[in-house]
Amino acid sequence: MRKIVAVPIGCGHYLPKRQVNNSEFERTIDTTNEWIISRTGIESRHFADPSENTSDLALKAARMALSDAKIAASELDALILATATPDQTFPSTATRVQHSLGMNKGFAFDIQAVCAGFIFALSNANALIKSGQVKKVMVIGAEIFSRILDWSDRSTCILFGDGAGALILEAAENNTKEIRRGILSTDLNSDGKYNDLLFVNGGVATTQTSGFVEMQGREVFKHAVSKLVSTAENSLKAANLSTKDVNWVVPHQANSRIISRTANIMGIDMNKVVMTVSNHGNTSAASIPIALSCSKQQNRFKSGDLLLMKAIGGGLAWGSVAMRW
Ligand code: UT7
């Protein structure tokens, strides 16, 4: 049966130049390098220059993805950008990137699902491709969380970093039963009753400020482990696959303990898990596409490898995507 599949054709990423080690926080708040590493796995993160906006980071990642895919921006039909830290309240950061890239047709829009944003964007891109509406889509996760951190709150400010990652998907026709490449299944979830576990204490309609991140870390941790396992199982089941088929897990990079505990419950060897949190911190919607692009640079994935991507963030919102590279 003829089937349209969304196939990855290129990826890219950008991390701001300024790399900040844990020792910098030791000078300003009551924390230690040892505490941060042992509780989170984070050793350093990148922070954007004051002159850089989220769209600047996204643009650099997008240009690298275009060059990797060997296509021009004018060939893109859509650009979907996941961010919780847009340049402006409106218009979308996606339209700014669309213009800067020289993408002169199609449409661009933002998606907001915080740390799960890239998974939500990828799922939407997949749906647009499968419905036949678009052929080539740029999916970006880009964040400058350093603009919404309370530098006096040691329980949150040490966790996050800035960056952007991009993945380009292309429609491919598959008329065999066995799908060799592309997105096989997606699973999206949210539950607004958990709003108070992880949120920003400001907003356009409430305080007319952008606010700062607040989190009940221990509670989010518990939800993260159970919900990431259940969404991963849902995606695999929907694709008639099991954990044994997984070549690589590319998880949201919030905390190395969440990543390893989740892998352990699923019976997946840590050698199959991509881990970038130590050098990037939690870059929210950008963490998975950055991890994809870094892995590609290191030639870690083979064509046809089964990748399981999963993420959770404020909302709570969580989800996963099973994709053959
Ligand atoms: O990306 C979106 C999803 N986000 C996440 O998945 C994050 C989930 N949560 C976590 O990763 C972890 O809960 C944290 C890393 C945020 C915190 O680790 P934890 O092991 O859950 O620590 P905790 O919040 O239970 O705090 C333990 C202790 C507390 O002190 P007391 O009350 O036991 O005296 C905190 O005040 O550690 C203290 N603490 C710190 N100590 C040194 C909290 N932050 C720090 C710090 N340095 N930076």
Describe this structure in words.
Strands 1-7-6-4-5 form a five-stranded mixed β-sheet, with helices on both faces. The chain is globular, with a radius of gyration of 18 Å. It is built from nine helices and 13 strands. 49% of the residues are buried. The longest helix is centred in the C-terminal third of the chain and has 22 residues. Helix 3 crosses helix 4. With 325 residues, the protein is α/β, with parallel strands linked by helices. 31% of the residues lie in helices and 27% in strands. Bound molecules: oxa(dethia)-CoA. Oxa(dethia)-CoA binds next to helix 2, helix 6 and strand 12.
Judged by helices, strands and strand pairing, the structural class is alpha/beta
List bound small molecules.
oxa(dethia)-CoA
The SSE order reads: EEHHEHEHEHEEEEEHEHHHEE
Number of helices: 9
- The share of residues in helices is 25-40%
For the termini, the CA-CA separation is: 22 Å
What is the strand arrangement across the widest sheet?
A: 1-7-6-4-5
Rg from Cα: 18 Å
Average pLDDT score = 97
Total strands: the figure is 13
Main beta sheet, described? Answer: 5 strands, mixed
Q: Are there runs of 5+ residues with pLDDT below 50, and where?
A: none
Beta-strand portion reads 25-35%
* Cα shape: globular
